[in-house]
UniProtKB/TrEMBL annotation:
Name of the molecule in the record: LysR family transcriptional regulator
InterPro entries with a match to the protein in the record: LysR_HTH_N (IPR000847), LysR_subst-bd (IPR005119), WH-like_DNA-bd_sf (IPR036388), WH_DNA-bd_sf (IPR036390)
Family stated for the protein in its record: Belongs to the LysR transcriptional regulatory family.
Pfam families associated with the record: HTH_1, LysR_substrate
Ranges of residues in domain HTH lysR-type: 1-58
Entry keyword Transcription: yes
Keywords: DNA-binding, Transcription, Transcription regulation
Length: 289
């Protein structure tokens, strides 16, 4: 018993004629007759009585018709959803804090206009957590700044950004004609938590320069660090995109460090074995624009 058997039966039931059903189904008359016989044999029933070269549906046929309609409807719905699975269902997207605040909202907004029936779930966390979730198949794709460590993850660059020195207004460093990296070592430093991509970049950079930093303040929140800097608690390095408004409003200040460049790359990341639906590929293309 197959779905094809049911579809053949439905046409025969509706037309009450083997020849007409065969024409509608683009099948031969013997093939249609054989399908009906196979159903009757399978269930041990009679579907049609053949009287004076005409077919008359039996009570078993009426019951089988109503059940077959329901099964075919469910099957066709499943077929449509499976073949258009990227227009339904859920895409799980992760982003690190900078990209989740600055880059991701406009991407999701544009994407949802094209895939209105598709649900999008977003997680914003640090880079280490995002990589773990990709490896554990808890995310489909992620936007991450900086280096991705696992060889099981595929990365494609989609942009860059910069970490800049931020200080309270009227800080002594701002009075220097040129600030060098070693100059900041005399002041309390406030940084993102271990595991964040910005923290990893800074730790590696300072280690390469044989400078040891021990932050007096660590936070998962960029805004918490901005507020702390604005109150004169210390200095920090934060993504330029996230603090531009605070600098323009005079809440914090900045100045270039002449011997350091904290540029980092943005990547769209997914597992090497991840099946990419058309919708996910479209989102990746949006990220690259």
């Amino acid at each position: 018993m197959t779905i094809k058997h049911m579809k053949i039966f439905i046409q025969v039931y509706r037309t009450q004629n083997i020849t007409k059903a065969a024409e509608l189904l683009h099948m031969t008359q013997p093939a249609v007759t054989r399908a009906i016989q196979e159903i009757e044999s399978y269930y041990g029933i009679c579907l049609f009585e053949r009287i004076r070269r005409r077919l008359f549906a039996t009570e078993s046929a009426h019951l089988f018709y109503s059940k077959s309609l329901h099964i075919i409807d469910v099957f066709d719905t499943m077929e449509m959803e499976m073949r258009n699975g990227d227009k339904f269902g859920v895409i799980r997207i992760g982003a690190s804090v900078t990209l989740g605040n600055y880059f991701l909202p406009q991407l999701v907004s544009r994407f949802q206009k094209q895939y209105e029936d598709l649900s999008i779930k977003v997680i914003i966390t640090n880079g280490v957590n995002l990589q773990k979730k990709l490896l554990d198949n808890e995310l489909d794709i992620a936007l991450i700044e900086g280096r991705v460590g696992s060889e099981e993850l595929h990365t494609e660059q989609v942009g860059t950004d910069h970490l800049i020195l931020v200080t309270p207004p009227r800080h002594p460093l701002l009075e220097k004609q040129k600030i060098k990296l070693e100059d900041i070592m005399d002041y309390p430093i406030l940084l993102r938590e271990k595991g964040s991509t910005s923290r990893a970049l800074l730790d590696n950079y300072f280690e390469m320069r044989d400078l040891q930093i021990s932050p007096m303040w660590e936070s998962t929140s960029t805004q918490a660090i901005v507020r702390a800097v604005s109150y004169g608690i210390g200095i920090s390095f934060l993504p330029k995109q996230l603090v531009n408004v605070d600098i323009e409003n005079g809440i914090i200040s900045t100045k270039d460090i002449v011997d350091a460049d904290f540029t980092r790359q943005h990547y769209i990341v997914w597992h090497n074995n991840k099946f990419l639906t058309d919708a996910i590929r479209k989102f990746i293309d949006l990220c690259k624009e």
